[in-house]
Amino acid sequence: MRINCVVLVLSLALIIRQCVGEPARPEEFPFFATLLYKNRGVCGAVLYTTTRLVATCHCLVTDNSGLFRPPHSLKRAADVTVDMGNDGDRPTGMLRVASSIAVHPECECTKRSLFYDFGVIELNEPMVLQEGIIAVAPILEEHLAIRQALENPSDYWCVLLDFSIIKRKVGFDLGSLEKSDVTLETFAWCKFHYSSENKNVDYNEEVQTCSNSYESPCREPDLGGAVLCANSKDAPRKLAVAMLSGRNHPYCGKYFHFPVKEAYARMDAAVKWLQTWVPPPTTSTSSPVTDETGSIPTRKSTTHKDCGTSRASHSSHVFLWYTITFLPSYSLMF
Which residues belong to the signal peptide in this entry (predicted)? Predict the structure, then answer.
């Protein structure tokens, strides 16, 4: 009986570890930013020049509670703010307002797929780079290395940036930034298991990749976290190879002969579009939305929405950047 109890405890500990992940050290990912919409945390994004970030399309459309396709209705650029360098010693971080946002012209969410899940944010003024705090991920220059990592995933150690989930009586809050090990698979493996063997979803190896990890993340929020790969766990150089794209959307949780896990939007495919994207001319710049006192509002009630369903689970989110609570606090909203 004691042996059974020990096995049960070990099993539960393993399950918790797989779902929770590890706390992420701020200096590991200085190119990872918080995307805010009307001062509420929405998603993660990757700074790839001092004035531009790549994000997922589903984070930038006005309503992702159901199916969406071109022509897209996008969030108003003046309501989109990017926060970087948020650390305990830097409680305010560095805020920049978007001058324009765009999504891939073929971005589309259907009941069977989410393709071309790419978006871009142009800032009204550059981020000031600071070593170990704010940095640029050179995805434009590293697109060949990114493709090599995706084509040979067994040669790389990869992690997914995500957020811990704090259960509440009603809904949940998002906690600190975390990293979880991800086992990326080859394009051929993904196509066979996600499309050929599973008749409930469509898969496009030109713009997607997938994982076969042990985690069970389905129905957790899809905040467009970055997938980062390196030659070893401790290697300082990390490639941003993909973005989380199919957790709540038409993939995660479906089952035919094979249980579908997370799907990801390929970063090298995003680079092809980013290299040709030209921001529209702007006539003015905007400042972050503030209340009557000039302070940034905090902790507003929010709604989390999933592509492919008309239901929305109401919850109040608190955004805690990295492993410590920072000010200002941002309420998460989709």
Answer: 1-21
